[in-house]
Write a structure and sequence with these properties.
about 0% strand, mainly alpha, 5 helices, single chain
Length: about 170
Amino acid sequence: MLRLFMPQTVTIVVDVLAWGVFHAATGYAAHRLPDERLARDGWGLRERRFEDRGRWYRRRLLIHRWKDRVPEAGALFDGGVSKRELPALDAAGLELFVRETRRAELGHWWALWCSPIFVLWNPPLAATLLAAYGVLVNLPFIAIQRYNRFRTQALLERLSRRRSTT
């Protein structure tokens, strides 16, 4: 294990830099995903019964009260899309928004999945705390993306039904 070779101060610096690299790399990898790969919800992104089209997040997590206070980095990379507001109110804009919530959710899942790597050079307690950091930092963003996507998908369904009746 690397911890035998690194002093504690260096280990802390490596930990901080590693999280920065993991977040940047997973964000960039998600940014580079082709749009076709994000055209629909796969197994990991699909809605679970308990989520109730995003209502669970509103009722249990009160997400509508705090979601706009967290940072948003969707436009960080060239060509990226901010999810602070809808790109357009037509079906194409809503579909773009849904696709970008999938992209952001995947980036946060991938960053969270980097947590076990810290076991390689940290003692058990530090590795556990760093993994907890990964969960605590990424889960709120995952929840926000899911909440926004399910609500937007419901809006798209209503628009589609409205179009088919006229």
